[in-house]
Known about the structure:
By secondary structure, the protein is of the alpha/beta class.
Amino acid sequence: MKIGILTFVHALNYGAVLQAYASQKFISNMGIDVSFINHFPVERITKSNNFSKSQLLLNKISNLMHPIKKYQGKKKRQKLSDFKNEFLNISEQIYHGDITELKENYDVVIAGSDQIWNTDVNPSPRPYFLDFKTNAKKAGYALSTGREKLTELDCEMIHKYVNNFEMLSVRENSLKNYLSENENVNCQLVCDPVFLLKENEWSKVAVTPKEKKYVLVYSMEWNDALINAIKNIKHHTNKKVYCINGGGISSASIADKTLGGLGPKEFIGYIKNADIVLTNSFHGAAFSAIFKKKLVVLEHSRRNERLCQLLELCGYPDHFLKLNDENYNLDNYYIDTITAYKNMSEFIEQSREYMKSLCQEN
């Protein structure tokens, strides 16, 4: 049995690399030969994606003004590369842009997870709908568009290529409902791959930081609500606050320390050893639940569907600190992740069984 996974294996962020690792590890634990299809999407510079000309210019200016930030970014990229070289089995055959035919002889090809169906993020979406020649069974695990409201291009691609899949599962309820209502496709809702692995498996990967007794902030964007929440936590806990910046312009002055240049192993380690985690990131919340950390989840200005769905599955749908919340009692927003993980356990087990079913030949 040989399985190929097609996902954003070359992405430069913790969530993408760690969900890829989790999928591979879960499948390899079953004694199956598994590797990632070595695909590079063609770069497309538009106003709508992360590689716009204006953003590239801003990044260059920022690097000139902040040499430490530039150094930390380079260090992070190197550690992400080191992690992939150490843990991810990536095929030697390289593909760019559209794939006409797979050269490898896989028995099953699995697309997912991550936002591989998001046509803003992904400049080469067709391969991630498995629109290529292969004798392998075609399946999808935890597929996502990364947004509740689909674009016209999202809908066009789904309509054209969704029938390529013999088995299909998605990560968000909105996509599940869209496929059912508009394409007459019934698919299963499953958890993000990071939940497929148990806490002890992630602990083996984590690097323990030297710092102790701290609050960890992992932010995908910075705003006044996040800064106020940090001040609130500092006032009520008297603990040091360490920040990992996942996106946006950070406000380092509010933190006791900004943690830059981390790799995936250090990222996991800081979450595992935190006393409290404050985050507006899905994977920040997910790993906090896995490691049973005291957790506060803050609303993101745009991307909240995954966070809302996660809190619902955890049994804490009302513990979502909104951007416009003021004069709140922080005690009302702490999530007991021991209980939360127990509430998710049945859903996680169903997802594990579904992944196992994908890995079976026709």
